[in-house]
Design brief:
Elements lengths: L1 H25 L6 H24 L1
Helix pairs in contact: 1-2
């Protein structure tokens, strides 16, 4: 059960990053392109980490 909770928390962090990016865009606040790409890559990496943790953890 603990590995499922950990994977869910990791996935929620990824979701929070994506929601923050969307919130900034809707508010009209510009995010630097490099910063946005890095955050998106981090979000994808967290999803992969959650999948790997469920598979091997």
């Amino acid at each position: 059960m603990n590995k499922y909770i950990t994977a869910i928390l990791i996935s929620l962090c990824s979701l929070a990053i994506n929601l923050w990016i969307i919130k900034q865009q809707r508010a009209g606040i510009e995010i630097e392109l490099g910063k946005k790409k890095n955050l998106e890559k981090l979000s994808y990496a967290l999803i992969i980490a959650a999948i790997l943790f469920l598979t091997f953890g």
